[in-house]
Amino acid sequence: MKLPKVRELLEATKALLVGPYTSKFPKKPHVPHPNFRGQPIYNPDKCVGCLACVSVCPVEALDYEDITDPKNPRRVMIHYTDTCIFCGTCEAACIADNEGIKLSNEWNLAFLDRKQSQESIEKELQLCEICGEPVACKDHLKWIAERVGELSYSNPTLYFSRLKELGVIDENILAASRDYNRSDRMKILCARCRRETTLTTK
Amino acid sequence: MAKSVIPIGPFHPLQEEPEFFTLTVDGEMVVDIDVAIGYNHRGIEKLSEMKTFDQSTFLIERICGICSTSHPFAYTRAVEDIIPVEVPERAKYIRTIIAEGERIHSHLLWLALAGHFLGYNTVYMWVWKLREEILDVMEILSGNRNNYAMFKPGGVRRDIKAEDIPVVAKKIDSIIPTVNRLKKAILDDPVLHARLKGIGILTKEEALDYCALGPTSRASGVAKDVRKDAPYGAYDQVEWDMIVTENGDVWDKAVIRILETYESIKIVKHCLTNLPDGEIDLNIKDIPPGEGIGAHEAPRGETFHYVRSDGTNRPARHKVRAPTFMNLPTCKATVPGYTVSDATIILAAIDPCYCCTERVAVVDTKGKQMYNAQDLIRLSQEKTQSLKRKMGIK
Fold first, then answer.
1. N or C terminus of chain B with fewer C-beta within 10 Å?
2. Are B278 and B191 in contact (CB under 8 A)?
């Protein structure tokens, strides 16, 4: 028990010389470590609008809205920054090589109006040609067609989506294909309408 | 001499948590103590039944702000016990690293708060600064200072990158001299000796009677540690010592926590250098019907989780027992016979976490308890019956 307070004095002197451990926020902006889990951000080029992230989110911080306006059908993917817990489950579940939604280093998410606490991107939506209900996002159909390869030719919805993207077909060719026997199937259809057209003859 | 009653609560002025201690004092001596909890019931167990097994992990993590890895660790072990499966080696090591990193920062936090309770704010600020380094290490490893979101049934969510390991090892090495200096400063301090030695003694028999857990029991000479008794994770592949002392007073509880910090540093360093290669996740798809139990030695003692599955993707029942639930009643044995000023530090010595251990309590406006456990079960059953009648289900 020799001079116990000397150690404290040493530490105090060291602290005076070195300064505080914390960063000098707000005088200087705080830069977190690259591994830091911050706000998830959608990448509109990579995201295919498949809603995998929405279904796995543990706090329902991700949401979507389908706007089935025939002129401009689109799916709005919404991220609520106030509810988010930055767990990274959305990134882990993303089917587009984990790049559709990615956690960023952004931590400064303070806001004054709660309405500002959301971010959204829009994806083009494919509507069913019969009932007008949403089938999936256009990018999602292309993504599936690429994945299943030649198997996509068993499904008109998929291969029309793929061929349209490649610019191989246009409306004239589609109109010609409708003169065949089962022309009612040669359309981009939602699952329910495809079942109905396949099973029933009108 | 007339006895008077001193209430501490319903909001602890220092620990900033809802609890209610009633101290019956005779002069300055405490002759009796009673504790009431139940001010902050959050319904976590019920909420957990409404989320999938995977999503529940994040909820369970938020039972406790400080031991935010202990609860997911016990929960994931319970879910893996249902199937049952063994997680890959690398996942075990990563889990151990995160759990021990948490133990270091939790013990340091307690040390700081103990200093704060005694009016020794030098230690408080000093340890707080030291703890920042550990929190930075956790940020590098997991991406956040707390609520690490690393655990999932079947493995861990993210890997530890090879380039981060030297940085982390260097940071952990750099805190050892500071901890050494801190240890000497605390153990040599005559004021702390005077305040803590022989205060709040929990004898070995009492520790066994009250089923005390963790550092509270180990300070009383009861060598009880889940990591040694039923090894899991990488604890059986690392050499480390269980710290046990005999006196059971507050001083010993402090010593145990300081020495355990060293053991945790040793475990983290060993796991980081010997991190095996391989998978980190089993990608469990389905949980079969059944029940499982999981335990983990949290910084405060053994955390215990029970999960029952009915074959769906949600738990049918989830039961949580936080270590404070067992440690809190020991105040009956430790506090009476000491002065009011000692009561503060004795109550803090078990490192209590009142919110984690919450149970539902129904009181009327005058603070009188209205229902006991049996009444609540009866109420719940009556409600179910009336709902069934309303919906026409037999």
1. C
2. no
